[in-house]
Amino acid sequence: MAMRSIFRPDAAFCASVYGGGRRRSSGAGIPRFPRISNISTSSREETMKKAFAPPRKVHEQITHSMQPHKVEIFKSLEDWAKDNILVHLKPVEKCWQPHEFLPDSSLESFEDEVKELRRRSKEIPDDFFVVLVGDMVTEEALPTYQTMVNTLDGVRDESGASPTSWAIWTRAWTAEENRHGDLLNKYLYLTGRVDMKQIEKTIQYLIGSGMDPRTENNPYLGYIYTSFQERATFISHGNTARLAKEHGDLKLAQMCGIISSDEKRHEIAYTKIIEKLFEIDPDGTVLAFADMMKKKISMPAHLLFDGRDDNLFEHFSAVAQRLGVYTAKDYADIVEFLVGRWKVEELVGLSSEGRKAQEFVCTLVPRIRRLGERAHGRAKQAGSVRFSWIYDREVMLDGN
Ligand SMILES: [Fe+2]
Ligand SMILES: [Fe+2]
């Protein structure tokens, strides 16, 4: 049965920082903060915001919603995962590395290569940099995503070096993903176009905030979420590649393109897991799919904060939408793709609940498209916003 608990950010803050009232010395490496008991609620919130992460509300936290006996499904799929999922990883020796796409700091020509990179980046407009920074920050919060996958019952890496296929996948997937933030981070640093300190703070805030994907320790929900997200990142990095090419920077286009192709491999693996679950447990899987769709897929960086802009994620998303890097249409397209990929319409022999879930999922796309259009119309934010990531220069939110 699902367990419910409400996460209270202020309680967690008190427990972790003040350790149940124990006094801390102000030794090296331990930051000093004012004692919470001596300050008012609003300034306490302000302190929290400045200290670790913005005090955003998260949803009611439902945990362990998968029926316990279903853990056996994942144990029984161990060999299947070895033969069908691990094959979508690339051996390290065959993987690209960030170094190959960046000026080689061991060579005499390094400075010239950096100059050339900076010359190319001058042709790229600020709004593109805002989106690229947002994508990079999202990739850099990788510890959160590995943690998220390791919350899932039946597939988590129990020891940190577990030999199960599920754990091997998660570690190697994380290791592949780690190259994405690494490459984009180094590239952005070398351009000199962005405020690295603000960006680095944003990464620290985002990892400190975590994410709230509402996957309930449930691998059905978790792998539906990752299927969606890998496709979303495949699309968005593909679009940044296209734009970089349009701005005449073929090397940057190549970087975004190679990241996008990794995301595609990951999408194939995660969607295959859900395809297998549909085969073994169609009822449970269609219910999980409908559940995730009702909750809506939150983006991994939805708690984005740079220490200044309380609506940074919305502002970043508006620019990404305007440039066509990731749009409401893409969201609907991904849902449509997944419904087709998993042949949800063709499922037979479902329970009455399962049939309702099937009906819900199969009629969802036109509704998402209509709602997306209306929401976009309402949310259109005329004017521009200053992004700290680009030294407070202004960027248009919506060009229409
Ligand atoms: Fe990635
Ligand atoms: Fe990914």
UniProtKB/TrEMBL annotation:
A Pfam family that the UniProt record links to this protein: FA_desaturase_2
Top-rank lineage group of the source organism: Eukaryota
Cofactor, how bound (note): Binds 2 Fe(2+) ions per subunit.
Catalytic activity: hexadecanoyl-[ACP] + 2 reduced [2Fe-2S]-[ferredoxin] + O2 + 2 H(+) = (4Z)-hexadecenoyl-[ACP] + 2 oxidized [2Fe-2S]-[ferredoxin] + 2 H2O
Cofactor(s) this protein cannot do without: Fe(2+)
Predominant place of localization: plastid
Keyword Plastid annotated: yes
Record note on quaternary structure: Homodimer.
Family according to the record: Belongs to the fatty acid desaturase type 2 family.
Protein name listed in UniProt: Acyl-[acyl-carrier-protein] desaturase
